[in-house]
Amino acid sequence: MSSSELSLESTKRFHRVPIGFGPAPTPRQDHEGKRFDWSKAQAKTIDVTYTSDHAALDAILLDGYATDKSKDAVVLFEVMELRNLPWLNGRGYNTWGVYVANVVCLRTKKPYTGSYISVLFETFTDPITTGREARTAPISFGAEFMRLELSGLVDKPVEEAPAHHPRAWTHPTQSGILHHRYVPTVGQPGQHDASYTTWCPPPPGKAPVIAYQTVEKADLNSIRLEIFEKSWEELPTLWNVVKGLKSLSRKEVLEVAVQTFQGASDLITNQKVE
Q1: What is the pLDDT of residue 173?
Q2: What is the pTM of this model?
Q3: Domains with residue ranges and CATH for the chain
């Protein structure tokens, strides 16, 4: 290990390319290396959960990950609105993530069960550049290819929200998030510098849900989630991802959940576990 690499490690701070300009500002550290206060941030998640097919969901998982066959095959599509973020000086952005529920990871010394995040789209470049390296999330950016329409939302007690009340399937706010980090080797197709499991446990304590809405079971058929397949000319580096998402089996709508949170997390608890 070179002296420059040793000096980077001795700072105990986050770094990313371009590496020569010192520790990097991220959601997890300010310019002095201190953590931000996220208590005044605001987050809203809009979840639509479907039953699916085990085979279809397993097809987008790597070796060593599999859906639990003793439970229903479930996929969750989540839009998140993040506002008043301290690391962006009060700015915000939106995300759209696709989570495979009830996934068991057998690559690790002890098995982990949680929701596997297959892809996360974001509307702002800063969280993409910081999240890909520091958080290892599969973050992407592209043209419009999905449309979600909700109607018939009704207010419910926050105690019934997914973040407070466990479902029959894993949920990111309740059960933790699995992901696989992969970093290709430069100039060597098929080779990698990193390939391992990461685990983000559910936040400790009671989730700060301040509002919860859902759609009654009788009205779930009114939900419209459309994914539009795009050509490589329209999405040069993401058309294959969108094609895969469109092909995922979406059968019965299990639940619609709109949760509003006071405060948010920097997800610093996300760790390499393999």
Answers
A1: 87
A2: 0.90
A3: 37-272 (2.40.400.10)
